[in-house]
Amino acid sequence: MNEIFKRVSIRKFESRPVEAEKIEKILRAAMAAPSAGNQQPWEFYVVRNKEKIAALAQSHEYAGCAAGAPAVIVPCVKTEGLRYPVMAEIDLAIATENLLLEITAQGLGGVWLGIAPVAERVEKVDAILGIGEKARAFALVPLGYPAEDRPHQDRYDESRIHYID
Predict the structure, then answer these.
(1) Per-residue pLDDT at 1 exceeds 90
(2) By the 8 A CB rule, do 77 and 39 touch?
(3) Half-sphere exposure of 60 toward its Cβ, with a 13 Å CA cutoff?
(4) Residue 158 maps to a domain
(5) Quick one: CA torsion of 69, 27, 125, 134, rounded to 10 degrees?
(6) 76 has which bridge partners?
(7) Based on the structure, what is the number of domains in the chain?
């Protein structure tokens, strides 16, 4: 999993579109994530409409970088039919990490912009996309071909490891 050690948050993108095949591979990776009781509590909105992307970029103070992305994937939490609803957002976090790793594997860049659990952000994104009652926005993931080169940070910190023998 070399992508774990290559992935960085990319906030600047080239204007060229992301190929449909790459988007599908990214979504397949997200849906391969484990989930509590295999409930798979996710829906994904792939936003390529420039007006919608511009609106998403205005959804909260940290989302501005989405404006320059050729696509934004919005992972959403289903609100019905869940065996373990209390675990649904954790499941979405795992799926979103898989999504980010596959973005890197596809030679693209992306960034996780938090939406949930901030109710105001969730409501804004839900309204922009017309998500409805059966799901709610979890995150924004702007993606595209990187227009910036950022080095990976080594975050390994031995002082945070505790062995119990």
Answers:
(1) no
(2) no
(3) 16
(4) no
(5) 160
(6) 43, 137
(7) 1
